[in-house]
């Protein structure tokens, strides 16, 4: 018994050390970016990103430029917020319907269609990017071309299906006995139960939409519709001093996702845990 306790204690200490190292590796780049946001943009070119705390070189000039300067940063920021909100809403709405269908109903070809979903999970965007672009090339320069092709998101469908397997069938039967329609059962009974799953998928899909770069780069043509990732990329050029705005803008772009995670952290952990063990 004593040796087992020692092994458990040693395992706990090893886990603490491991996760502490991982936490440092994750936080360190963000902290480095935070320090760099107080330095002149020329320092980024000369010294790169570093942890050198030279107080005489640090000021709030970059933040003054961000909030009062003449640039398009806030237009890009607003475009990204609009696109992210629309993407998350459409993806959750459609994927919840599809996941609910796979979990609750029995129909011909159900297993075959779900296998297709699993296959899609293993195919990276780069493989289907060109044929997909050819399909939507006639849609015009708009956000619909970014949102619509990915509304039925394979990983989100899979997660919702696994989560819904844990919902008792008695809820559905009670709804049908009370005379509720199938849509009524979904909207009135199922969606309230799925709040943790919605929160978890909202954060993950929100992060993907906010950081999405490659697909908007192919689709968007007008500079007025640039998202934050595309707009910040235009600042990387050898002409003009754009690196001050680039570095502070890059750091500030983390804020919305950080706020989203803090607000829904409880539901995120609950939803991810439930989705992992159900099914």
From TrEMBL:
Which superkingdom? Bacteria
Q: Which InterPro entries match?
A: MetI-like, MetI-like_sf
Q: Pfam families per the record?
A: BPD_transp_1
Location of this chain's protein in the cell: Cell membrane
Q: Which UniProt keywords apply?
A: Cell membrane, Membrane, Transmembrane, Transmembrane helix, Transport
**Gene Ontology CC: one annotated term:** plasma membrane
Q: Name one GO biological process term.
A: transmembrane transport
Q: What is the membrane topology here?
A: Multi-pass membrane protein
Span of domain ABC transmembrane type-1: 77-264
TM stretches of this protein: 12-36, 76-100, 112-133, 145-164, 185-207, 243-264
- The family this protein is said to belong to: Belongs to the binding-protein-dependent transport system permease family.
Which PANTHER family does this chain map to? Answer: ABC TRANSPORTER PERMEASE PROTEIN MG189-RELATED-RELATED (PTHR43744), ARABINOOLIGOSACCHARIDES TRANSPORT SYSTEM PERMEASE PROTEIN ARAQ (PTHR43744:SF2)
**Protein name as catalogued:** Carbohydrate ABC transporter permease
Q: Which organism is it from?
A: Anaerosacchariphilus polymeriproducens
* Lineage of the species this protein comes from: Bacteria, Bacillati, Bacillota, Clostridia, Lachnospirales
């Amino acid at each position: 018994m004593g040796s087992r306790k020692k092994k458990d204690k040693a395992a706990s200490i090893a886990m603490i050390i491991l996760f502490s190292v991982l936490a440092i590796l994750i936080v360190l780049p963000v902290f480095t970016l935070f320090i760099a946001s107080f330095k002149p943009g020329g320092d980024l070119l000369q010294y790169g990103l570093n942890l050198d705390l030279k107080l005489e070189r640090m000021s709030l000039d970059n933040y003054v430029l961000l909030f009062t300067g003449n640039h398009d940063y806030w237009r890009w920021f607003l475009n990204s917020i609009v696109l992210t909100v629309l993407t998350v809403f459409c993806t959750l709405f459609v994927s919840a319907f599809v996941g609910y269908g796979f979990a609750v109903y029995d129909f011909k070809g159900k297993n075959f269609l779900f296998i297709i979903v699993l296959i899609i999970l293993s195919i990276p965007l780069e493989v289907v990017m060109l044929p997909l672009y050819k399909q939507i090339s006639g849609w015009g320069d708009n956000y619909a071309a970014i949102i619509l092709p990915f509304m039925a998101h394979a990983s989100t469908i899979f997660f919702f299906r696994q989560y819904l397997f844990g919902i008792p069938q008695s809820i559905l039967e009670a709804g049908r006995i009370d005379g509720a329609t199938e849509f009524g059962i979904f909207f009135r009974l199922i969606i309230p139960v799925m709040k943790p799953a919605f929160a978890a998928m909202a954060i993950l899909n929100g992060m993907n939409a906010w950081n999405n770069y490659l697909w908007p780069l192919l689709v968007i043509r007008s500079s007025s519709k640039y998202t934050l990732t595309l707009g910040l990329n235009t600042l990387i050029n050898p002409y003009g001093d754009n690196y001050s705005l680039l570095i502070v803008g890059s750091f500030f772009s983390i804020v919305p996702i950080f706020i989203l995670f803090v607000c829904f952290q409880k539901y995120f952990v609950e939803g991810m845990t439930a989705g992992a063990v159900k099914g």
